[in-house]
Amino acid sequence: MKRLSIFIAAMLISLGMFAQTADIVPSPVSVVKKDGVFKISDNTKVLFKITNETEKEFSELAKDILKSAAGITPEFVAPTTQKEGNILIQLNNPLDTKIGNEGYTLSIQNDRVFLNANTTAGLFYGVQSIWQLLTSTDGTTLPCMDVTDYPRFGWRGLHLDVSRHFMPVEFIYKYIDYLALHKMNVFHWHLVDDQGWRIEIKKYPKLTEVGAWRADREDLDWKSRNEPVKENEPKYGGFYTQEEVKDIVEYARKKHVTVIPEIEMPAHVMSALAAYPEYSCTGEYKPVPPGKVWPNTHIFCAGKDETFNFLEDVLTEVMGLFPSTYIHIGGDEATKTEWEKCELCQKRMTDEGLKDEHELQAYFIKRIEKFLNKNGRHLIGWDEILEGGLDPTATIMSWRGSKPGIEAAQAGHDVVMSPASHCYFDYYQGNPSLEPQAFGGNITLKKVYSYEPVPEELSADEAKHIIGAQANIWTEYMPNGRHVEYMIMPRMSALSEVLWSPKDAKDWGDFSKRMESQYKRFDKLGVNYATSAFQVTAKPELNPENKTIKVSLSTEAWNPDIYYTTDGSEPTAQSKKYTEPFIICKSQSVKAVVIKDGKQKSQSLGTDFFIHKAVACKVDQKYPNSKSYESTGEYALVNGIKGSKDHHDGNWKGFNGKDLVATIDLGESQSFSKVSTGVLQNNGAWIFYPTHVTVEVSEDGENFKKLGTVKNKVSANDGDLQIQDLVLNKKAKARYVRVTAAHLTSCPKNHAGAGYPGWLFVDEIIIE
To answer: Structure pTM?
Structure first.
């Protein structure tokens, strides 16, 4: 029976009925591995029939790709009967309907290789897979296998904001190369925003003469940069000439990447209005802002026909540079207070029978859409363009979660999913204490990989409107291309697999294993990628019975060797190797790292554990915390575990519009001299320090007397991501200790959440 089972298993493997993967990212649809290898040598030729310019372009790219892996420049020749020892590449005739326009089939045999596709795009992606297989070996060896591969989604995109920080032309080419490497096919180029107009428009030269430059405030935090104080001070900026844009678009086309420009409207246009203030409602000149703008009130006037004439002129030149079907017009975050006061805007609303300013924005978008449609283009915009109604021909880019995308798909709109929860690569990707400054949030490699673009709420027909997804890269905190690389790599690899590979084939363990080879490819290409996936996380588990903490260490990396210390010293390869969870029974600082091939893969991550008088004591809360930020449950505030700067790390209790009022029962009257309350501030996430913390004590749990108050001295406008302990040093003896942390009643002025209640986050109350 055992022999029969082995025989059946072998048969199933040979038939490809067990899931197999190749060392390729994104993972192919189907892989059947075989024995043996194919070796590329100086005598290996590529047999490919070139009949037109497109096929010639492909052959030149394929030659360069293969050379970069094998170090050998293969000769491309017309197909012959001699196939042994060679690579045969050919277009299908008749077409293979299963693999579509971007798919390919690859058969690697001991003595030859076959690569087939319906188009040169498919052939190009097949050669990318060959390159990855070669770079996983010695550069000349291909493991034998049969591969069938094609993408799940037609829109596989990456966005880049070049307004907040200008990126040189050389980096844009490199960015397109990264897309092609990952079989992604859309480059969403965010060319216009408040902080800079980045594309030459010949009819309106001041857009770049004025709008492309701002006061140089690069030495200050993005959120605290003031407007210029004098006209002749140093400027920061740059723009792309029309010739540069044409060359970039052509370069991308050859690599089967479509460049989609974004020309923002009606908001995020202060750079345009600095050049041409007459197209605003007030006509007031305001300089190009050097940093954060909120709210976005200085916007295009919807009541002036001159505004639309200007925009149509701009879009006409843009369409002359970009052959893409889609033109992105932004449409997000328009605060309409100027429209409310503008006589021309109000007259437009009356003349058009519009009931409010939301419908006026819809009128604005529809008018632009008609112009684009008349010129054979389709409008795409951020999900705010749904407000006030929209024609079904418009495509929606859903960034405020999945809900707008669901509504858009149900209304018949095509949708590109790009939720901030999984696809904003300007967010942290590891522990913030070990990462360069980012906008906020935390989206790890594993979280990106977990993303599913098609919401369960959609029917099969509605789901067809989800045409793909993309990641967005906003560059407030990315001053150069090296920093952008760090933020997109390796998360781009995870997203590419989400968008290319079959949903049911996703396997985090297999992906993380294949990333070992992907990191080596990044090294070969000189990519400045993040090693955040190697950061070690300590997962604690409190034992209330004996007041000890069991600590488990983990990382997102494949099969890591973790070394740790418990005395606060830096771990090395000579430190204790982690093999199983260990017990903490006194206050200690644990630090851990991954060491691979003798090299430390990331900075050590330290976690402090505190065994104090209140550990595992009963806590009563007057007000419940948010269910989204429950921390570790019953003993969350007295479990000996401090939170990190990542408010999603599971160690914080979050309160929205409520104070923390927590009464701790120490079980019996005890003496102590210090009460410490750990709190977090993340201005970008609307999390603020409490205004003060008050400590009260009682012997019976009913009659309390005030022990003291500690005031917070850090401004709510301080944009740094930070943690502090508000400490009351005062000797006392009591059984019950009540701690009240008073929340900030509303977000500060000039904050995105001004007028709304802020969040209060508390991790641990330590009594010593």
So the answer is: 0.89
